């Protein structure tokens, strides 16, 4: 029953098959009452939750984002363009190495830091491929480069105990910034027969982290202090089922997400609708605008046709086709990303750049108009 209660703590509905008796199903309700501080004649007194540490005090990244959110954007009540890097947050995604060495991604992080990038975003087995642990790379970057990192944490590969163990270990190493995602299914990657765990989804994991931030684990056990996790979540402004996407986003914000990072969008109307809907939520949260500079016509076609959740409008694909390949194609991809950034920079706290095919220098090209630049 205790194991079932821990898993059910992150669920909204819970049940069992024919072989499951009433006791394990009833146990989550008992545990829930204990976690809430009531208890139903259980063993001992329930641990009390501690007040969560203010979001702005959880990391340097959280502090900068919250200052911009409050001072420049009025917590979502006004539009105001940034004046420069001090008024804008930039995260660039650097993938973990597919091998044993951190040298290449660490060198990339060093180049980006010199260009003014605030934080390095590190994916967690993107597209269900095998790569080095993102926490190992994050620790190397923070130690050797001095840049803050923000880690993706997906629910695909670890059971509840593994997720909790990684969270506690990450926190002890100063890795407080998380992007909580459900994760791509293994069938998309190199090992399609690998087991997909999914004890919880992104909403459930956010609830767990919200509990850790009040000093409690999912079973109601108390730690000696509150965690300082700053949690972002992803959103897909161009989702086919947009209403479902917005319902999920509301659930994730209710579960503890303090920041939204969007998937790349190449259609201004789609992004405009999404930002308006986020601003109208009962609890608006800051947004990082997702940008993915295209590098060629072939790249644009691949993203549109082969990557789930990605849509590149025909007009954008036509522009990339006219530009051709090589430097001209890359320059056109940068220009397209700059147009999106220019249109929406007055509504977001910053941007999240996802370079394609290892073209990390293009991230700084996209940001040149805001005062970022390569180290010459």
UniProtKB/TrEMBL annotation:
Its cofactor is FAD. Keywords: FAD, Flavoprotein, Oxidoreductase. One of its GO terms (biological process) is tetrahydrofolate interconversion. This is Methylenetetrahydrofolate reductase (NAD(P)H). CDD domains: MTHFR (cd00537). GO terms for cellular component: cytosol. Belongs to the methylenetetrahydrofolate reductase family. GO terms for molecular function: FAD binding; methylenetetrahydrofolate reductase [NAD(P)H] activity. Gene3D superfamilies: 3.20.20.220. Pathway: One-carbon metabolism; tetrahydrofolate interconversion. It holds the Pfam family MTHFR. It comes from Cryptomonas curvata.
């Amino acid at each position: 029953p205790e194991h079932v209660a821990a898993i059910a703590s992150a669920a909204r509905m819970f049940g069992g098959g024919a072989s499951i008796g009433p006791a394990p199903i009833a146990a989550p309700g008992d545990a829930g009452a204990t976690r809430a501080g009531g208890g139903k004649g259980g063993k001992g007194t329930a641990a009390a939750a501690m007040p969560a540490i203010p979001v702005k005090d959880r990391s340097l990244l959280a502090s900068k984002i919250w200052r911009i959110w409050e001072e420049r954007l009025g917590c979502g009540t006004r539009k105001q363009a940034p004046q420069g890097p001090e008024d804008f947050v930039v995260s660039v995604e650097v993938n973990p190495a597919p091998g044993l060495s951190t040298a290449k991604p660490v060198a990339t992080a060093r180049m980006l830091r010199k260009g003014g990038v605030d934080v390095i975003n590190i994916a967690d087995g993107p597209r269900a491929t095998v790569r080095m642990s993102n926490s190992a790379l994050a620790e190397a970057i923070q130690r050797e480069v001095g840049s803050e990192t923000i880690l993706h944490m997906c629910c695909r590969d670890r059971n509840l105990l593994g997720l909790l163990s990684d969270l506690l270990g990450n926190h002890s190493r100063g890795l407080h910034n998380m992007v909580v995602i459900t994760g791509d299914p293994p069938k998309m990657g190199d090992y399609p027969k690998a087991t997909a765990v999914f004890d919880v989804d992104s909403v459930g994991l956010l609830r767990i982290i919200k509990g850790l931030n009040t000093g409690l684990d999912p079973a109601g056990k108390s730690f000696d202090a509150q965690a300082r996790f700053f949690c972002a979540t992803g959103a897909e402004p161009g989702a086919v089922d947009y209403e479902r996407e917005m319902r999920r986003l509301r659930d994730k914000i209710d579960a503890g997400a303090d920041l939204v990072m969007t998937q790349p969008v190449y259609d201004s109307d789609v992004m405009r609708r999404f930002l308006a809907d986020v601003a109208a939520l009962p609890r608006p949260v800051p947004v990082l605008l997702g940008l993915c500079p295209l590098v060629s016509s072939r790249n644009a076609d691949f993203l549109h046709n082969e990557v789930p959740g990605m849509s590149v409008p025909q007009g954008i694909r036509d522009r990339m086709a006219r530009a051709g390949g090589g430097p001209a194609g890359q320059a056109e991809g940068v220009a397209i990303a700059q147009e999106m950034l220019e249109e929406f920079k007055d509504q977001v706290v910053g941007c999240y750049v996802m370079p394609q095919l290892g073209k990390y220098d293009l991230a700084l090209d996209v940001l040149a108009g805001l005062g970022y630049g390569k180290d010459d």
